[in-house]
Amino acid sequence: MTPGADVALFGISVLSGIIGALAGVGGGILVIPALTTIFGVDIHLAIGASIVSIIATSSGAAVAYVRDRLTNLRVGMFLEVATTTGAVGGALAAAVVAPQLLYVLLAAVLGLSILQQVSRLGEELPPEVMPSRAAVALRLASSYPDQQLRREVPYAARRVGLGFVMMLMAGFLSGLLGIGSGVLKVLAMDGVMRLPMKVSTATSNFMIGVTAAASAGIYLGRGDVDARLAAPVALGVLTGALLGSRVLVRLRNRQVRLIFVPIMVVVALQMLARGLGLHVAFLG
Amino acid sequence: MTGPATTPPERPDARLSSDELRLVVARVLLAGVALSAALILAGFLASLFVGWDGSLLGAARGGDPTDVGAIAEGLRNLRPQAIAQLGLLTLVLTPMARVAASLGLFAVEHDRMYVLISLVVLAILIAGLLVIR
Fold first, then answer.
1. Which residues is A144 bridged to in the sheet?
2. How many CB pairs under 8 A join A and B?
3. pLDDT band at B42, cuts 50/70/90?
4. Closest residue to A67, CB basis, from B26, B32, B91
5. If we measure between CA atoms, which residue out of B32, B43, B39 comes closest to residue B2?
6. Is there a contact between B129 and A220 if contact means CB atoms under 8 Å apart?
7. Is A209 on the interface with B (CB under 8 A)?
8. Angle between the N-to-C axes of helices A43-67 and A99-119, in degrees from 0 to 180, rounded to the nearest 10
9. Is B124 helix (H, G, I), strand (E, B) or coil?
10. What is the pTM of this model?
11. Pairing state of beta strands A142-146 and A151-155?
């Protein structure tokens, strides 16, 4: 690859990282479509580059959340048993799954992210829940300091089994598609286990790195993590995510969604068209 | 910020030791990302000058560093691709180090259940690294 292409790869990855951070999705789900459509990169190499980038962005962002006590280390560690198991399965399956199906699944997960973006309204706390027996046994209940409410918010967890099963699925998709599948992780913790949104988001982010590492080893061994592609992509996505998180503080949530939901819709349609083998001229 | 993680002394106060747990975990993550980003950046920048298969020491162009021996040869000759590959490997190992750090600190807290859970996660991660070789 020529130096010019390297710089272009870096640039498009920065952009994916910025949009990803602003829209609250990982850079992976946008960088894979960008690599495959704009640069014509083989989807398996794109996934390999994406999976290592995700480790960088997740670990980088996790540092602040861990320090602020938003991340629940026990919930994270327990559910990582499920996500890493799923991820290993997904990465093994990726070798035998048809690329078309990968595109369709990418479109589906993007669609889910879009629904979540559209539906996510105010950030209120979940109703007080009775912790289930499993949650008590696993000591998942905790509390976090809420800066907006200016108080310590205690919380419990329930439906741990269902949450665990969803995490298996989230891990499988992460390993299969080289994405963080943070949307599914948040859904499992916030929607199913009824943890507060901020705790769910921070813990999901924390788990993404470990989940990605479980399948990244397999991609590395398979030779799908090519430094010539993965180096500019990982650096770009990391830079973009750092920039995006700086900008995010100054933007209103509504503005962010109004700008990025249409972009995500276009990318999702494009992936769907690719998967179904359609040629849609205006989508490239 | 990225100083070496010190083992916190045993304390009866659970809150204090769990705060220390958080700090160590955060430091391990930060150090891992910083180190791997530096290596990947070094490889990337070097590639712009001598090409991915070139050598900063002026050695002949080399092939893909796919196995450990080739990476070692690439590192000896300061090949951009080998340097970046080492950074990518460091990146993949960072979450593993984080799980190991959590494991150690759950042990300090005498939390046997979570020591066991961390061990299971660590085993799966190692299996993921070894499964293809």
1. A153
2. 158
3. very high
4. B26
5. B32
6. yes
7. yes
8. 30
9. helix
10. 0.84
11. antiparallel
